[in-house]
Amino acid sequence: MAKRREVFGTNIIPPTPPKSFFQLMWEALQDVTLIVLMVAAGVSLLLALYSKYFGGEHSSGDESEGEVSWIEGVAILCAVLVVVLVTATNDWQKEKQFRGLQDKIESDHKMSVLRDGDITEVLVGDIVVGDICLVKYGK
């Protein structure tokens, strides 16, 4: 058995590396709605800066409106950031749960094999080249 494992390797598929939190954030940012909101926030910020520095005199009587008009754009960006963080956190937790469930399934799954003339139950990861797997109806 040890020689077969050494020559042919184990019967385990290496898991794909988990996505980092920043990759999950980047995937969340690819949502069309969030892209539109970020563009709207950028336009709002640009218009606020333009009206403050190049807009000249304000026709309205409220002088403080030009100084705080940038808040709308920043508020939109903050909302987008919250949505991205919540989405990435949920995806990270789901992936973590899925990996734990997958590990549990792989560690508990046994198979009947014919090895050295005897029928034995072995873990799927312990099957080696030369084992004859006995497939049963319903299992």
Automatic annotation (TrEMBL):
GO MF term set: ATP binding; metal ion binding; P-type calcium transporter activity
Keyword list, A-Z = ATP-binding, Calcium, Calcium transport, Ion transport, Magnesium, Membrane, Metal-binding, Nucleotide-binding, Translocase, Transmembrane, Transmembrane helix, Transport
Gene Ontology terms: cellular component: endomembrane system; plasma membrane
Q: Which SUPFAM superfamilies does the record associate with it?
A: Calcium ATPase, transmembrane domain M
Using the UniProt record, name the top-level EC class of this enzyme in a single word. translocase
Question: Where is the Cation-transporting P-type ATPase N-terminal domain positioned along the sequence?
Answer: 2-44
What EC designation does it have?
7.2.2.10
Subcellular location field: Endomembrane system
Entry-linked Gene3D superfamilies: Calcium-transporting ATPase, cytoplasmic transduction domain A, Calcium-transporting ATPase, transmembrane domain
**Residue intervals passing through the bilayer:** 32-50, 70-89
InterPro entries given in the database record: ATPase_P-typ_cation-transptr_N, ATPase_P-typ_TM_dom_sf
**What GO biological process terms does the UniProt entry carry, in alphabetical order?**
regulation of cytosolic calcium ion concentration
Topology with regard to the membrane? Multi-pass membrane protein
Q: Mind telling me what this protein is named?
A: P-type Ca(2+) transporter
Origin organism is Schistosoma mattheei
